[in-house]
Design brief:
about 15% strand; 2 domains; Isoleucyl-tRNA Synthetase, Domain 1; elongated; 4-stranded antiparallel sheet; Rossmann fold; alpha/beta; 19 strands; 7-stranded parallel sheet
């Protein structure tokens, strides 16, 4: 029986259009899922949209449109983007769906019955942008003498009746859990950040609102709507219908941005413990992308549309850049110049050129057939065995989701394969009629390309399919098959450019 692997993105907030950060998170989760699938796991991958809260209600009012219609339009843009990115998600959740509302109200009843909720009054400073109350210690004053939160949102003073979740009682259980489960939050810097936050003390959490209406009603009290984060976080379970919860929960990893780590690593496990659920195994918080050194923001006009990037440069090219350019978990800088340089150097010059010249030589020197090798040299054996060695190393790296390191390891093989071409000089072997050595070289290189394509499938899925087609192989090949070679005598297709160079003005 296959081992299961359940992975999620956060559900994306629908107050605005999809941007580069959404594509980054989604590509990362999709690549991890594909890696596990090719490692023979029974995978389940979900994404979706978070559609409740004051911010969404305000955005709809600004556009003078019905709130449900507004959420329908923006959610559809996310769904369309993910189809364009060719994500392999099994399901797409919307928090306005009945299945989700029913689950959240069921959870509310559980928390109430477990004596985890009480009714009181709340007064404090509220960030509409972050949909949360801000602690006094996190508030600063701007030049206009207004109170602002960590995300630079001008805060509102709110005083209203509220239901509270007894978060304070979970401080010690959470700290004990973190101590016993040091892989719960990754990377390590984020784990330390979460632990430090909880050690400073937890206050009970306001979990309902009366100042707006766009949300899930509190059962038996329609004056209140359920706090958007209590509502939204349970999407990871509400989506698991018809026996899927028993099969896949707890989640193996939630991939989130660092800005929502506190909600996932503090509030979420407390909610789950209070409701009697097992906790997810890992929360992985990645960093942010800046644009030409500046943080993405609508006011600066530097928000990058992933649709434009994919249409201009290609799905795999954008995916590769985002996952290779920075260590997963750290911040990174995006510019089209960097993207173009990475495409041309790594994909076109290194990988693409290797495929093009090796398969062209197969056509030219052996009529398109993989030749029969003779006795392998030590260099032949070293190159042919390297992909299997790298696969074992990469499995360890995947345990910590070191996506850029995995890609760098694959590129070690590509660089060595290009050096092998330069050293063996097949063109001279053909010219000098040294057919045995020529056949060896072409056989070794063809199988090395085949194995590179196997390893790179999670990160270059569309390109890998094209390479397998050129090699007359099926479109998806499990990692276990990396120990097998393509046999001699197989007729190969004429090569086509897999990664064309980008010839345009660099921005």
């Amino acid at each position: 029986m296959k081992k299961s692997f359940y992975i999620t993105t956060p559900i994306y907030y629908v107050n605005d259009l999809p941007h580069l950060g959404h594509a980054y998170t989604s590509f990362a989760a999709d690549s991890i899922c594909k890696y596990k699938l090719l490692s023979n796991y029974d995978t389940y991958f979900i994404t979706g949209t978070d559609e409740h809260g004051q911010k969404v209600e305000n955005s709809a009012k600004e556009k003078k449109i019905d709130t449900q219609k507004f959420t329908d339009q923006v959610s559809a843009r996310f769904k369309n983007l993910f189809q364009k990115l060719k994500l392999s998600n099994n399901d797409f959740i919307r928090t306005t769906q009945k299945r989700h509302k029913n689950k959240v109200q069921f959870i509310w009843h559980k928390l109430l019955n477990n004596n985890e909720i009480y009714l009181g009054n709340y007064e404090g400073w509220y960030s509409v942008r972050d949909e949360c109350f801000i602690n006094e210690s996190d508030i600063t004053i701007n030049k206009d003498n207004k109170k602002i939160g960590p995300s630079q949102d001008i805060l509102k003073k709110v005083k209203e009746p509220s239901y509270f979740f007894k978060l304070s009682k979970w401080q010690k259980p959470l700290l004990n859990f973190y101590k016993k489960n040091k892989d719960f939050v990754k990377p390590l810097s984020r784990y330390n950040e979460v632990k430090s936050f909880v050690e400073r003390g937890l206050d009970d959490l306001s979990i309902s609102r009366t100042s707006f209406k766009w949300g899930i009603n509190v059962p038996d009290n329609n004056e209140h709507v359920i706090y958007v984060w209590l509502d939204a976080l349970f999407n990871y379970i509400s989506i698991l219908e018809n026996g899927l919860e028993k099969k896949y929960w707890p989640a193996d990893v939630h991939i989130v941005g660092k800005d929502i780590l506190r909600f996932h690593a503090v509030y979420w496990p407390a909610f789950l413990l209070a409701a009697g659920y097992e906790l997810p195994k890992t929360i992985y918080a990645h960093g942010w992308w800046t644009i030409d050194g500046k943080k993405m923001s609508k006011s600066l006009g530097n928000v990058i549309d992933p649709n434009y990037l994919v249409d201009t440069y290609g799905i795999d090219q954008v995916r590769y850049f985002l996952l290779k350019e920075i260590p997963f978990g750290e911040d990174g800088n995006f510019s089209e110049k960097l993207l173009i340089n990475r495409i041309n150097s790594d994909l076109a010059n290194n990988y693409g050129n290797l495929i093009q010249r090796v398969l062209s030589m197969i056509q030219k020197y052996n009529n398109g057939f993989i030749p029969k090798p003779e006795k392998f040299t030590d260099e032949d054996i070293s190159l042919m065995s390297l992909p299997e060695q790298i696969y074992k190393i990469n499995n360890d790296k995947m345990n910590n989701y070191q996506l850029n390191v995995i890609l760098e390891n694959i590129w070690q093989i590509i660089r060595l394969a290009n050096s092998y071409v330069d050293n063996s000089e097949p063109w001279n072997l053909f010219k000098n009629k040294n057919i045995n050595k020529l056949n060896n070289a072409l056989y070794v290189l063809t199988n090395t390309i085949y194995k590179i394509a196997i390893l790179s499938q999670p990160f270059l899925p569309e390109s890998s399919k094209k390479i397998f087609q050129l090699l007359n192989q099926k479109e998806e090949i499990f990692f276990n098959d990396i120990k097998n070679n393509i046999q001699e005598g197989l007729k190969l297709s004429k090569p086509i450019p897999i990664f064309p160079r980008i010839e345009k003005d660099e921005k």
